[in-house]
What we know:
The protein is of the alpha/beta class.
Amino acid sequence: MSGNGSGSGAxxxxxxxxxxPGSVPAARPGFRPDVEGLRALAxxxxxxxxxxxxxxAGGYAGVxxxxxxxxxxxxGLLVRELGRTGRVSLTGFYARRMRRLLPSALTVLAAVVLAxxxxxxxxxxxxxxxxxxxAALYAVNWRQAAEAxxxxxxxxxxxxxxxxxxxxxxxxxxxVWPLLLIAVAWWCRRRGRGVRPWxxxxxxxxxAGSFWYAVTLTRQAAGAAYFSTGTRYWELAAGGLLALVPGxxxxxxxxxxxxxxxLAGVAVIGGAALRFGADTAFPGPWALLPVLGAAAVLAAGxxxxxxxxxxxxxxxxxxxxxxxxxxxxxxxxPFLAFTAVWLGEPPLxxxxxxxxLSWIPAALTHxxxxxxxxxxxERAVRAHRSGLVLGAACTAGAVLxxxxxxxxxxxxxxxxxxxxxxAAVLAAGDTGLQRSADALRPLPESAEDDVDAAxxxxxxxxxxxxxxxxxxxxxxxxxxxxxxxxxSHAVQWAPALRGxxxxxGWRLExxxxxxxxxxxxxxxxxxxxxAYTECDTWRExxxxxxxxxxxxxxxxxxxxxxxxxxxxRRLGETAGAELTEEGYAKTLRRxxxxxxxxxxxxxxxxxxxxxxSCVSGAMDSLADCATAKSAALGFEQVGEVATRxxxxxxxxxxxSMLCRDGExxxxxxxxxxxxxxxxxxxTYVRTMTGWLEGELPVAV
Length: 700
């Protein structure tokens, strides 16, 4: 949502069509009120989607509309400058964008830093401040792509500046596009060719490549594809191609066709917002719908503005929302994110109130910051250089604000190992809930990374189908082979099993894959937004390997709440659990058929919040971070049900080492139990080694 493009309040100037009865005059650059209204439609969809409106689960398509508008307006601006002067001033272009974008962005980023100090748990502060730095540098989308962030998720883990990803995409596009335009114009002048056709050809070819990449990467890694500049380039290019259509061409289009096209465009955008959802593979190829819808509205307005769609989008209240859309976009997500930190994931009514309240700073920022710098008189902005200096100062200020805050974040004191017995306090009969701590192990701010080496080396990535190599621990030459088989909820038990393997002289083999249950059922990959076929392939390879190897003991485990696909559709929770139980039983029968003893871990409790975040801000009131046992285990234990159905398989239930007296604490024996909202820390699992050894068959 940027200056001349998706979110700015700048009055869009285009070259409208020639005058005809019922249309606007078109001989010179003029104001397009329908473009301002189209911005309002886009920001409205985004705001309602982020607030959690179920009926608009595809409201994220509003961002795609913004991209098309931005490509259309910026390309038109550059081409008109090229036509008037025979050149494009890069310093002028970037100075204008900096004056329009960066003062408002700095205002919001500074406010985010201040609010974070007041509201965000200490464990999350460094992540927020790092995001502020990358947002100020317009690179936050790459950080989010690398982490495959769930953009719609609210809570303490939601960065209050993650919405800057779309601004980053646009600015990265506009680093490249003016340079490409200048290069094509230079080439055309040297050979006496027309610039527009060659520019259109370059845009079309590169857009086609970007679209192919978007479709391909979305199939492989939808989470990363969502934030990638490469997968979004074609959307901006689509608007650019529209801006390159000669004005004379629009004069040949009948007005009735323009009216129908405009209405169809609005309908397609609305339909996408209504029909898309969290499971839609996006941005490719489904992003075609909002992109084509936006292009249709823009094309219709190039023919005649006073069509039915044009009149609707040109209403004064609609145009006002479009005019402040950049500032409102900047402010709305921090309001939602901090509301979630303060109150937990808010209901729709509270989220809508937060969005509405964000209008106040948005309106003030638009009037006193955005407009002040964008419309600064020439005597105040004497040259393009001053705009560049202003932009550099704003960027440096935001980066400095985030960086200094990052270095100032207080740290929890690390407890010595001897002072952090963990599960040993429960084994010794201490059932009291730890109320406070002045030192912990691991540190809450680094708990997410508290994993065993087997997690890093043996948990196969989602796109891989081959078994991990070299994942053997203990006595590698032993005749007694024990296998740990399952997903990330299985590999979390590796620290304890490795200790037992070393004491008992086992050969421990770890066969695990991210988000891949041992159950013979096709799962839904949430990050990939499709059926998890790689899991099916890997699982069959692993089972065949186990049948050939015939181990003495197989220990399985998996997350109990896993979405399942049947006949090409994602099942609901109840139907999915039933199918998973059947699939788990099939797997257990195959495993017992190898002659091995088979043990299944019941899934661990799932806290209602991100434990390290909570603990870091509640060292004197750790009970606030505990979860009621009924809530933490409020799901179907599919592995437990399946194990009871299969002879020769037994259950290991860790609940007694994780919950006592109806509570599942966040800290036990000065050890942080969970590294996020459903995985155990490796440190705590190691303290469970003695208990686990007592649960294993003595004869193995």
